[in-house]
Specification:
It is a single chain. Helix content is 16%, strand content 37%. The protein has one domain. The chain has a four-stranded antiparallel β-sheet, covered by helices on one side. Strands 3-4-7 form a three-stranded antiparallel β-sheet, covered by helices on one side. The protein is built from two helices and seven strands, in the order H-E-H-E-E-E-E-E-E. By secondary structure, it is α+β, with helices and mostly antiparallel strands.
Length: 129
């Protein structure tokens, strides 16, 4: 028998991020706490507008299956500390809701603003064993 899950269930998880993550941090290492994201490993940070479909967040079909949250950060982000961005983290101001390793690190300096790339958070459909 096949396993199914309604898109609305997957969307609920993605919308939790879209409706609560109003901060984005570009970090030199993987942050697991708000302090690590916003202070310890922070090279740059910015605010996001919460809510699905507002420009920063859009929920839709996954690239292969399931559902995804497309995240489009704002451009020209002020860099606070020189270094190499290896993680991006989304936060609600008290905790890290999502942290993603970058495929390749991005060197940043305080002399130049950061123009971050868009990225997706995907939840695939369940797979039967």
């Amino acid at each position: 028998m096949a396993t199914t899950i309604a898109d609305a269930v997957l969307d609920a998880a993605l919308n939790y991020i879209a409706n609560n993550a109003d901060e984005i941090y570009y970090c030199s290492a993987q942050p697991t706490t708000y302090t690590e994201a916003s202070v310890t490993f922070k090279l740059a940070g910015d605010t996001l507008t919460v809510g699905d479909g507002n420009g920063n967040y859009v929920v839709g079909n996954g690239d292969i299956d399931g559902r995804k949250l497309a995240v489009t950060p704002t451009q020209n982000v002020t860099v606070n500390t020189n270094g190499t961005v290896t993680y991006v983290a989304l936060s609600d101001g008290t905790s890290v809701l999502y942290a993603k390793a970058l495929d390749a690190g991005v060197a940043v300096t305080t002399a130049n603003p950061l123009d971050p790339s868009a990225f997706d958070i995907e939840i695939g459909d369940p797979v039967d064993d």
